[in-house]
Amino acid sequence: MYKRLSIVMFPFLLLALIGSSVWGYLEHQEKNTILIKAENQYQRAFHDLSFHMDKLHTELGNTLAVNETSEPSYRKGLVNVWRLTSQAQSDITQLPLMLLPFNKTEDFLANMANFSYRMSVRDMTKQPLTEAEMKTLNTLYTHSADITKEIRGVQDKVIANNLRWMDVESALISENEMHDNSIIDGFSIVDKKVGAYEELNWGTGSLNVFSKNDVKMLSGNDMTADQIKKKALEFLGVKDSNGVKVVENGGKAPEFQSFSVVVPSADSTKNDTQLDYTKKGGHLIYFMKTRDVPSAKFNLRQARDIANEFLDAHEYKDLSAISYDQYQNMATIHFAKKEKNVTIYPVQVTVKVALDTLEVTGLQATDYIYSQKKREIGQPKITVADARKQLNSKMKVTSESLAVIKNDLDEEVLCHEFIGTLNNNIYRIYVNADVGTEEKIETIRQDQLEAAAKSKT
C-alpha cells in the first residue's frame, strides 16, 4: 500500500520540488535585477555629481573672467551657476547619504544656488555687483575647486576598485563597517572641509540657510523643558502628564533652538499628539493631532469660523483667511495677517480642521512667529488703473486689493493684487505698487476659488 502511495505521490512531489526551485530562481533573478538597477542609478547620480561640480567650478571661473561692465555676461554666468548648483543638489538627493553627515556641503550648495539666483534676477544696471559680492564669487570659485578635487578623488577610487554604492548603503546601516568604505570616507572628508570654511558674506539680498529663522523677532525669555511641558498640557487641556516627552532641539545654534513635545493619547488606538515650541518665548509653531475623519458633517465656512476662533484664543491675531483646501474630510485653511486693509502674505498661519466634529487638528505657524516686525506700509505710487495696464488685455479681473509679498530677492514689496480669469484658468497676479512691474503670477485651482466663495456665504 505504501509502495503504491509513494508511486502516486512521487510525481507530485517532484513537480512541487521543481516548481519551488524555479520560483526561487526567478525570485533570485528578480532581486538581482532590482539591485543592479539601483546600483546603476546610484552610479549615474554620482558621476553626474562629479561632472556638474566640475562644470560649476569652470562656470564660476568664466563668470569672474568677463568684463566688469558686461551686465548680460554676468547675468548669463550667474544663471548657469545657479542651474549647475541646483543639478548638483539634485544628484546628491539621489545618493544613499541620508545616514552620512553631509549636511554642511548640502547647506553650502543651497546657499550658493540662492546667492547666484538672487544676483542674476536683479537689475544690474541699477544694482551692479558690489566689491563684497565679487569677493564672495572668488571665494566660491576657490571652494568649488576643493570640493571638485575631493569628489574626483572618490570617483577615481570608485572606477579603479570597481566600488559599489550598494555596499555604501549596507555600510551606513552597519556602523561597524563605516570606517572601511572609501566612498563614505571620501564624502566625510568633503563635508569636514566644507564645515571648516569661514562663513561667507552672502549679501543682504540673499537668504542664508544658517540664519533662516531670526530669533530676534521672538518675544519673551528662554523657556525650560518643564515650562514647555506645562504650556503644551494647558494648550491641549490635558491634566495627566504621564508619558509626556519633551526633547530640546538645535544644540547651540539659536536659530534652530526649539522643544518638541509628544503627548500620548488616552486611547491606545489613536495616535500621539505632537507639538513644537520655540525655546525663546515658548511660542507654538507646530501642532498635529492625527486621526481618522470618517465623514464631513460641516462645511468650509463653519471650519473657517472655528479656525478663526482658535487663532483668536491663542497668540495669532489680526488674520484673515486667504485660501482653502478640502481633502479626505479635512479642511486646510491658510490665514495671512491684515494690516490697514493690506494683506501681509509673509505672515501666515495654516490651520487644519476635521469636518466631522470641527476639531482643530493641526497648526503650522513658523512664518507667523518668525515674521513679526514693525512694517511701514506706505501709499502705492502706482494707481490701480495704471497697474491694471500691466495685465493681459484679455484677462477678466474679478477682484483687486493691496498686498505685501516677498519678491525673488526675498524683499518685502507692496503690490496691487489682482485675481482674474484667462483661457479658463484663474490667476493671482501681483504688480509692484511702486514701479508698476509684475512681481509674481500664481495659478489658482477652480475648487479653491469655489471653496473660498462658499466659505464667505
UniProtKB/TrEMBL annotation:
Q: Where is the signal peptide?
A: none
Chain ranges of the Sporulation protein YpeB PepSY1 and PepSY2 domain: 185-377
The superkingdom listed in its UniProt entry is Bacteria
An example Gene Ontology biological process: spore germination
Domain Sporulation protein YpeB N-terminal: where?
A: 30-167
Designated name of the protein: Germination protein YpeB
**Organism encoding this protein:** Paenibacillus pectinilyticus
